[in-house]
């Protein structure tokens, strides 16, 4: 385990965030985050300007693969034959229906496929906007000439109607992540072993990714295993932003112990002042450990095979007392490290 050296200056996280800000942030209504002042190289790109960036390079592709049509509790038969919805972005604001054959037939044309998994309380349209914004920020940070394919994994995380208790919403979505991990793992198992895959997940999206890695590594998650032939032999690169999953579960003897078998590089951001992750253990009744995005692994992986490729990046001074994906997508320090793992050097 090693900490990442960050090009951003060290600073103390802001202390002015009051109870109201924490509450609004927790329910996803805390407003748009602004780019951190210490990250000046992208500070000119305000969050509401992200969607107006120039169109994607002609060689790139942006897709959304959605599991929402399967419902929040798909049956066993649906899981055996997942019906995923494929749509391709044209770069000008329109999405066009497609299919799995069209997607998989050209997977060799791209240097890397980056799969982004969003967090909780995101409607489908919001997940698409978020994914396109993250793609454009990564492309701006890493202008490599190699073509990349960016996939937005859209899962049923929309706010529960009439759910005035945010804790109830958080617990329900926690229970959905294992099913999404299984669906993501099955889909990743269909990709060609020679295709380079990178995974980027935010909040519960990070939990979905870690569960999928565990299944791809041959593990069992809530009684489910992947069919024969779906486990990957080639390793993946992984970035976890504000990971809302238990900090010890990657270690031997815990539910995600097989995840590191299929990981080449893993970047974990750590924000010690995240107001939502601070409440993770209290909100999730089954959680006996603190959130990975709040504390990091805390040495739980020492002596575990495969932990040499794990890097923890302390972003406390960059993100502060916020739990919002834009704080990560608008920080050039975080983006630089993310692009280095997910895409590679220009």
Report what the structure shows.
The structure is a single chain. The protein has 346 residues and is of the alpha/beta class. It has one domain (16-342): Rossmann fold (3-Layer(aba) Sandwich). The protein is built from 11 helices and 10 strands. It has a 10-stranded mixed β-sheet, sandwiched between helices. Helix 4 crosses helix 11 (332-342) and helix 5 (166-190) runs parallel beside helix 6 (204-216). The protein is globular, with a radius of gyration of 19 Å.
**CATH architectural arrangement:** 3-Layer(aba) Sandwich
Strand order, sheet with most strands: 1-10-9-8-7-5-6-2-3-4
Q: What is the share of helical residues?
A: 25-40%
How is the main sheet built?
10 strands, mixed
Radius of gyration, Cα only, in angstroms? 19 Å
On the 0-100 scale, what is the average pLDDT?
84
Structural class: alpha/beta
- Share of β-strand residues: 15-25%
CATH topology description: Rossmann fold
What oligomeric arrangement do these chains adopt? single chain
Count of folded domains? 1
Task: Count every helix, treating DSSP H or I runs of 4 or more residues as helices.
Answer: 11
Number of strands: 10
Distance N to C terminus: 26 Å
Specify the CATH class. Answer: Alpha Beta
Q: Ranges with pLDDT <50 over ≥5 residues? A: 5-54
Q: List SSEs in N-to-C order.
A: EHEHEEHEHEHEHEEHHEHHH
What spatial form do the alpha-carbon principal axes imply?
A: globular
């Amino acid at each position: 385990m090693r900490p990442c050296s960050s090009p951003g200056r060290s600073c103390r996280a802001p202390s002015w965030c009051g109870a109201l800000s924490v509450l609004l942030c927790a329910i996803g209504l805390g407003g748009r985050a602004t780019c951190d002042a210490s990250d000046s190289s992208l500070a000119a790109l305000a969050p509401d300007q992200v969607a107006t960036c120039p169109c994607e390079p002609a060689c790139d592709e942006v897709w959304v693969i959605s599991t929402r049509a399967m419902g929040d509790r798909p049956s066993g038969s649906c899981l055996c034959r997942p019906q995923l919805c494929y749509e391709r972005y044209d770069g000008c604001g329109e999405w066009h229906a497609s299919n799995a054959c069209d997607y998989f037939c050209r997977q060799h044309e791209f240097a890397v496929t980056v799969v982004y998994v969003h967090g909780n309380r995101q409607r489908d349209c919001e997940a698409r906007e978020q994914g396109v914004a993250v793609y454009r920020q990564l492309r701006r940070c890493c202008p490599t000439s190699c073509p990349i394919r960016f996939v937005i994994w859209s899962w049923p995380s929309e706010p529960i109607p009439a759910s005035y208790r945010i804790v109830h919403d958080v617990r329900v979505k926690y229970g959905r992540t294992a099913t999404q991990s299984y669906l993501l793992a099955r889909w990743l198992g269909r990709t060609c072993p020679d295709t380079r895959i990178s995974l980027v997940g935010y909040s519960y999206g990070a939990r979905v990714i870690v569960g999928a890695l565990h299944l791809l590594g041959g593990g069992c998650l809530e009684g489910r295993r992947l069919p024969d032939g779906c486990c990957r032999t080639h390793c993946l690169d992984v970035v976890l932003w504000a990971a809302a999953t238990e900090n010890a579960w990657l270690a031997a003897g815990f539910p995600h112990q097989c995840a590191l078998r299929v990981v080449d590089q893993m970047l974990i951001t750590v924000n010690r002042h995240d107001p939502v992750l601070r409440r993770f253990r209290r909100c999730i009744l089954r959680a006996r450990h603190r959130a990975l995005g709040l504390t990091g692994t805390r040495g739980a992986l020492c002596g575990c095979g495969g932990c040499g490729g794990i890097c923890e990046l302390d972003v406390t001074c960059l993100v502060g007392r916020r739990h919002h994906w834009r704080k990560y997508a608008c920080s050039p320090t975080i983006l630089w490290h993310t692009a280095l793992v997910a895409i590679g050097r220009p």
